[in-house]
Every structure is written in structure tokens, then in C-alpha cells.
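Task 17 of the worksheet. Students: predict the tertiary structure of the chain below and write it out as C-alpha cells. Keep your answer in the requested format; marks are given for formatting as well as content.
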Amino acid sequence: MEKVLLAMSGGIDSSVAAYLLREKGMAVEGVFFILFDEPANIELAKQTANFLNIKLHIEDLREKFKADVITPFFEGYKKGITPNPCVICNKKIKFPLLKFLAEKVKANYIATGHYARIVRINNIPLLMKGIDPKKDQSYFLYGIERTLLSHIIFPLGEYTKYKIREIAEKVGIPSKVAEESTEVCFLRDKRYYESIRPTKGGPIIEMSTGKIIGQHRGIHLYTIGQRKRLGIASPHPLYVVKIEPSENAVYVDSKEKAFMREFVVNELNWLCDIEKEEFSCQVKIRYAMNPEKATVTLINKDRANVVFEKPQFAPTPGQSAVFYNGDIVLGGGVIKEIMQGF
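Model answer:
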């Protein structure tokens, strides 16, 4: 019997994943990662493990999570960028630790409750989108080690969220009552800027005229494409189009100025072989968007230039650009620099 170690959050997705793996005849053990104080759903994770008669390991990763995810998250905002903590957590915490613990418990595979798929083509494992377009989470997974793909199972990738809820109800899994996890788990119900100490204010500048039209209370309060909380009276809507830490300035203008075609990414990670230095693909620059056509040109092994066929709204430094060929995730990187053209 093959053994799999599953990350269990106590939520409905990972709990049903445990059930599905067990139904396939696999020996399942779960692990709950304590990432911050008072973690939600830990008791539900224990109840679900007892209900499914699987062993649950508890791993306290608070120090590592703070160092690798929480601190860089807040420091990023202070520098005028918008980090993606889920991508960083998967890359630096969740999957490396699952691999390490799987070796300790002699598990053949690791698994999570992500809506994504591992599909073998010509016996090569590829990361692919989940079949539910509303829940596909492949965007958050591009940063994992390619060598892990042959050891990962995503049990939910072939299901819709509706079907997973249906299974939880039918089986009576305790975690069906769990709250949905939020994108930034460690913030709970807070806004990110409520957890950052006030920093030095500076000018809000209208990009097209160069005029100072207001004062901000810290660049950490802003992200590219933002419209709310500007505190400026204007006859037309204004959007953040640029954040310049060296000037401690926030630039705003009309919505059309927030649409951009070209940017540079770094920290590249590839999940399949890339044979050309320039190639066409589809690119997502945020989770909740459809992939759009673009040309990617490799600058070196760690940097690439991306040019969208059509301008896209608010490419944002710190966020991830993920490259797709249809359903296949090719890889991706972190947006570093925007070529704004004005």
C-alpha cells in the first residue's frame, strides 16, 4: 500500500482530499502546520483525522513562517511593492516541509487540498490547472521545485468546489463547517496596513501633469491599480499608477494609465523545459484574472521580459507573473519592474 502525507488545514478542501486519498486505497497521514498564534481550524483538523481514522502530525513552524513569509510581507509593503504570501509559503514552507516530513514517515507521496492537477505527458509530470475555472489554484504553485512534481498528488484537481462540498456533506466530514481560508491567512480579519506602524508621509503626484495634488500617509498604504483611500477630491476617478520609494511619492492618474504592456520578472522558476529564449504563451499577473497572450524573452536564467499583446490592468511589483501553455503551467517569476511608457 502506497503512503501519502497530506497537509491538513482543518478546512473542507484538505479534509475531503484526505477522504479521497483513503478511498483510493492509499495509507494516509496528515500534518497540520502551526504557522502563527491561535491557528484557525486546528481542532477541526483533529476531529477530521479521528473521523477518517488517520494519524495527524502537528508541526510548529511559527518561527520559520515569520522569518520567510510574515516579515518579508510587511517589509515589502514598506518598500512600495505588493508581495504574494501564498506563493512564498508554498515555495519556502509548505512543500519543502512536506517533502522533509514525508521522508521521515516513509511516505511515497505528498499531497495538499489545492485545486490543481499533476498530469503525466510522455511520462513527464506537469503542473496543470484544476478543472474548476473558478477555483483553479495553479497560479500559487508555480514556485515549487520541479523535482517534486513526480511526488505530488492533488486529489481535488479533477473536481469542482460544488462537488467537494457535496462529498463532505454526504460523508459527514466535520470540516464541512469550517470557514473558508482567506488569501492572507495570518491577518485574520485585519487589513494588512492595520498591522504596519505609520511611516513617513509624502506627496501624491498626478502623473500626467507632475502636480502635487495631495499627501499620503505612507507608501505602504498603496498598491498599483488602487482607487480607494486616496483622499483626493477629483472630477474624475484616480488610480495609483506608480509608487516611487526613492521619492517617497505615490503617482496617480486616470484608469487607462494603469494599463501596461511590458514588465520584467525575476526569481524565475520553471516547471518544464523551455527550449527557446523567446516564446509566446499566456500570462496571469494576479490570481483572479484570465491568462492573456504575451511574449516572454529570457534575459538570463533569473530574469525575463514580458510583453502583453494587449495592455493589462495594473501589473504590480512584488506580485507573480505565471506563464501558461493552455492548461500547463510553464513556470513564472516575481514582477520586478514595470515599463510604463509615460
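Marker's comment: The CA atoms of residues 298 and 304 lie 4 Å apart. Residues 85-104 form the longest helix (20 residues).
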